[in-house]
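Collaborator request, handled under Task 6.
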Amino acid sequence: MDTLDRCCDQTRGWVNDAIAAVAADANRSADTHLLPFPLCGDWGIDLYLKDESVHPTGSLKHRLARSLFLYALCNGWITEGTPVIEASSGSTAVSEAYFARMLGLPFIAVMPATTSGEKIALIEFHDGVCHLVEDPSKVVSTARALAAERGGHYMDQFTYAERATDWRGNNNIAESIYQQMAAERHPIPAWIVVGAGTGGTSATVGRWIRYQRHCTKLCVVDPENSAFFDGWRDHDPEATVAAGSRIEGIGRPRVEPSFIPTVVDRMMKVPDAASVAVLREASAKLGRRLGGSTGTNLYAAFALIAELRSRGETGSVVTLLCDSGDRYANSYFSDSWVDGHGLDLAPYTETARRFMSTGEWVEPS
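Structure tokens returned to the collaborator:
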């Protein structure tokens, strides 16, 4: 009888300790807050923001990074000393750098050269190395090549996001939203609005809605220079665009494997100027700075609420506060950055202000 033993007690012991360390991080973290967004008057409709900025690494991607590390550890892809490489526009890399440092692993983030300096600084704070790429379409191929060259593991959030997260429960973001909504006057949301970066969040939320047989509909928002909307509209999983997204954290030049179009009820393509205008107006309303993808989410949430009102319906809408606007002081909150990108915020600012004061929605022509 031939036998071959590929495992040693030392390797298994390190992996066991690593899994315990990552799991302990989740156990130490309280759930994120569900914040009511102040609307004018009682319209019979409530808007909530799931505040993912309070995670230890400051964004929604903390959940994803934890799941990806557990998935890779349990699959035997990461062992002691394995270099970890990721393709990321910033927030996922910040969170993965945090977990890599926790486990004593080298981490390299391959990112577009346009990634905000604030995010680069956060990755480096967690001992990560930033590898910047001029062509956003080359980020994934560069990450794969670096992993092969260094004998490391390419984490590949764009493929594994939808399968690394336990969509049936285990305190995933969808389960958390419904638990926190239980005591509200409209506990089952009419709509949940999320962005598409990997597609993992929309896959998790959409599957949970169906698994629990809720009547909630899922709206996915997509910024300019992203392929998700076109791919969903045209039933084309091969859809691509040439330019990179200016709204960090969402938008991709191709439809990623983690995006599950069949769980999405509606998609909206949101202009970048609208995202920036709304995040600024909403930041002033809340007294705190919001990130770009939160502006994209809120633009769609406002439009959906206006639709509900026009039909005389009541209910609730939930979306995500993905990260803090403090990471974008030199971009979305900089007038020179806005002007340099040729964004005209004025018509979308007027739309947001009119909605927040009257509930009326007038889409700029």
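The cover message to the collaborator said: "Residues 252 and 260 are 14 Å apart (CA to CA). The first helix runs from residue 9 to 28. Please let us know whether this matches your experimental observations."
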